[in-house]
């Protein structure tokens, strides 16, 4: 009901991920060489480990630069993710923490913004990729969308999420910190992630169209 209560979303994610789903995600990491390396080293994503001045200095189409540009545009930082509190297994708690901290990289990779329409599109992709129940339960927030937004979700974003979510590799196994200089289009191809239409641009075009129609009516 309130997508800005990140603490409650986090608690819901942890409570519904156990006992089965978080173990499935951990096993997906254990079955992958990069996933196993991440579990061994347990890196954390913060403004100390991901220094924004360095990321902004990377080539324009690099993963790190794309991530930094997205953070700057949306006004968020790597330090905004809550710590896991309700998963007892230490390794599984780290897997949930890793998923949570990687979320903004998924945003940057897809270009989806943080307002509700963008979050729902990304959550649909995450559900098909991770099977974490909270990502699927988030779709109930579609009732908060305006009719036009809900129509776009059904006609544009959900078909995109299904295509990419079913064809993509396990995103939890991406060691983002080690591929910051990689070309982001190349990474999308390797992961099987189709870039969706620019949500902000679509909304801007709709606003301008409505403005022109209003002006036309006023002139009549």
From TrEMBL:
Lyase that catalyzes the C1-decarboxylation of 4-hydroxy-3-methoxy-5-(all-trans-polyprenyl)benzoic acid into 2-methoxy-6-(all-trans-polyprenyl)phenol during ubiquinone biosynthesis. HAMAP family: Coq4. Zn(2+) binds at residues 103-104, 107, 119. Transmembrane segments: none annotated. InterPro entries: Coq4, Coq4_euk. It is found in: Mitochondrion inner membrane. It catalyses: a 4-hydroxy-3-methoxy-5-(all-trans-polyprenyl)benzoate + H(+) = a 2-methoxy-6-(all-trans-polyprenyl)phenol + CO2. It comes from the Eukaryota. GO terms for cellular component: extrinsic component of mitochondrial inner membrane. This is 4-hydroxy-3-methoxy-5-polyprenylbenzoate decarboxylase. Its main location: mitochondrion. Component of a multi-subunit COQ enzyme complex, composed of at least COQ3, COQ4, COQ5, COQ6, COQ7 and COQ9. GO terms for molecular function: 4-hydroxy-3-methoxy-5-polyprenylbenzoate decarboxylase activity; zinc ion binding. Keywords: Lyase, Membrane, Metal-binding, Mitochondrion, Mitochondrion inner membrane, Ubiquinone biosynthesis, Zinc. Its cofactor is Zn(2+). Pathway: Cofactor biosynthesis; ubiquinone biosynthesis. Belongs to the COQ4 family. It is a peripheral membrane protein.
């Amino acid at each position: 009901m309130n997508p800005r209560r990140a603490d409650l979303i986090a608690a819901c994610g942890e409570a519904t991920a156990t006992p089965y789903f978080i173990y499935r995600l951990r096993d997906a990491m254990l079955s992958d060489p990069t996933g196993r390396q991440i579990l061994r080293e347990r890196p954390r994503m913060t403004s100390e480990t991901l220094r924004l001045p360095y990321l902004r200095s990377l080539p324009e189409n690099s993963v790190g630069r794309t991530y930094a540009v997205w953070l700057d545009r949306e006004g968020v930082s790597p330090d905004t993710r809550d710590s896991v509190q309700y998963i007892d297994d230490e390794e599984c708690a780290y897997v949930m923490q890793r998923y949570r901290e990687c979320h903004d990289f998924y945003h940057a990779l897809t270009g989806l913004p943080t307002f509700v329409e963008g979050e729902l599109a990304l959550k649909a992709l995450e559900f098909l990729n991770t099977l974490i129940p909270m990502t699927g339960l988030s779709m109930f927030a579609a009732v908060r969308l305006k009719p036009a937004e809900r129509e776009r979700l059904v006609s544009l974003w959900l078909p995109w999420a299904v295509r990419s979510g079913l064809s993509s590799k396990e995103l939890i196994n991406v060691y983002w910190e080690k591929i910051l200089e990689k070309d982001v289009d190349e990474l999308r191809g390797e992961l099987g992630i189709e870039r969706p239409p620019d949500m902000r641009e679509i909304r801007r075009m709709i606003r301008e169209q409505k403005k022109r129609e209003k002006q036309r009516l006023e002139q009549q």
